Structure formats: C-alpha cells, structure tokens
Amino acid sequence: MGYNGGWKPYVPVAERRRKAEQQVAKAIKAGRTLSPIAPYRGAIAKTFWGKAWCDNLERYSDYGNRLPRGRTYVRNGSVIDLQITAGKIHAQVMGSSLYTVQIDVVVCPDPHWRALSADCASSIDSMVELLQGKLSGAVMERICKPGTGLFPSPKDIRFGCSCPDWASMCKHVAAVLYGAGARLDQQPGLLFTLRGVDAADLVDSTGAGLSAAGAAPAPGKILDTAALGDVFGIEIDTGSEPLTAPPVARKRAGKQSAARTSRVSTPSTPAQPVLASAKSTSKGKTAAPKAVVKS
C-alpha cells in the first residue's frame, strides 16, 4: 500500500492500542520485560517530581511547539516500554508501526551537583521527605531552577527516533519525554539515576557537621590535672567512677579534703633536736648525748 506524500496513513487510537497490546503480549511470550506507560486521562503528572519534570520541559521555547504532539500518544498508551538508566531513556512507541526512541541526557557535572547539594543539605531532613516532594518553597525553587537545578536543559538532551519524521523532535520523542514525567510520579528516584547522582547527598548533613565540630582539642590546649592541683592546693580526682554523694555532702567532703591537703602540703617548722642530759655510767664515764627527734 502506498503512502500519501511519503507518510504512512493515519492509524486511529483504537487501532494503535490494539497493536500495542499485541506487541506487549509478544514480548512477554518471548521472555522480555516491558515497562509501559498505562493509558489514562487527565494530567500527565500528578506529583511534585513528575510535574516539575514536565514544567521544566515546557519552560523552554525549543520544545514549546513540539511537545503537545506527544501528549495524546502518552495518554492513550502508545508508549509500550520506557526504561530509565544513568544518562539514558530507552523507549518503544506504537504509531503506524513500532518505533524505537533513544534519549541521551548529560550526567550532572560534579561541581554543579556539589553546589546544589550544599545549598539544600541543611534544608532536607530525610529521604522520604525528599522523594515525596514535601519540601519548602525555597528548596523546591532551588532544585527546579533552570540551568543550575537538577533538571536538564535542552542543551543537555539528545534524542533520536526510528520513525521517518524528519523533525528534530517527532511526536514519538515528545511522548517519551512526557512518559518520563509520568514514570517519575511512581518512581521519583529515577530522576537521580538519570542524572547520575546520589539523592542522599541532598539530605541534611547537620549531624556530620556537629560531630566534626566536636573533635577533641589539641594536646597543647589541655591543662594537666597535676598542675591544676598545684595552683589551687587541692587534689584532683581523675577516676572514672561518678560521685554518688549528694551535692551538699560532696561540697563538705571537698572542703575537708582541701583542708587535709593544705595541712599535708604546707611545710612545717623543722623539729628541734632535744639533747638528753649526760648520764654517768657505772664506770664513771660520761655517755655521749643522744639526739632525739620529736615526731
């Protein structure tokens, strides 16, 4: 059958759905695993990450007049397979025939990601909060900021399709880009996989900062306990066992200890030797005097 002006004849939605179901059944029978975007009505994305993805695409004039062509395709279930890996989106779209779409997304550069993580680390408390999109307005704005946020800009995206459409972005590619937004509704972590980054880097790092700030002081900054005792004339208890006496008893005991320490440490006047009187022996000799030190 010939084509009208080089184009294949239009295939109604019902026919495309029937063909899509046949292709899915054939893949399952062959042992392949497909991940389709199920047909639905209404908004393409309903959660924070899915909406943010679609809003980011529609923000750029490069895609403004091309994306709408793919909305009906993704809504009616024409995207029968969509796989997201690091830097790549691979999909199959049912049109007048089955077409293969390949989209390459530049991995987020390290300096870019470090700057974004540093800005958000003190504002995101948990991974659950992050993936559910329950973030403050400031954090959401930072993550979605064009050019410096997490979402790719047109210069970061390259795509191709096996269809005969000469347009740089055909309706099949547009359907896949919207399909990625629908997939992020269900699996928001795939956005971080696609950009080649670790979502944990965005989570609050305050605890790590506090532990680093609590490092032990340098040895030269520590006053020796023996020197401290000499300064104040008291004994410093360096034992590890905690005191069990009540506060008043400890205070009294401390005073008594200080008093005893003062008496021991204060030098006293040396005792004068007492000379015993000379005694005569039975032989008439005088015994040598003995020095007696009084304790």
Describe the model.
The chain is built from 12 helices and 6 strands. It has 295 residues and is an alpha+beta fold. The chain has a domain at 13-108 and 153-197. It has a 4-stranded antiparallel sheet. A two-stranded antiparallel ribbon has the order 5-6. Helix 2 packs antiparallel against helix 8 (171-186) and helix 4 (68-75) packs across helix 8.
Characteristic key phrases:
two-stranded antiparallel ribbon; single chain; four-stranded antiparallel sheet; alpha+beta; 12 helices; 295 residues; elongated
Strand content: 5-15%
Low-confidence sequence ranges:
206-217, 273-286
**Spatial extent as radius of gyration:** 42 Å
- Most strands sheet: 4 strands, antiparallel
Helicity level, as a percent range?
40-55%
Topology, number of strands: 6
Q: Span from first to last CA?
A: 130 Å
Q: What oligomeric state is this? A: single chain
Indicate the topology.
Elements: H1 13-29, H2 48-59, H3 61-64, H4 68-75, E1 79-85, E2 88-94, E3 98-105, H5 110-120, H6 127-131, H7 137-143, E4 157-161, H8 171-186, H9 190-195, H10 206-213, H11 225-232, H12 247-265, E5 274-275, E6 291-292
Antiparallel strand pairs: 1-2, 2-3, 3-4, 5-6
Helix pairs in contact: 2-8, 4-8
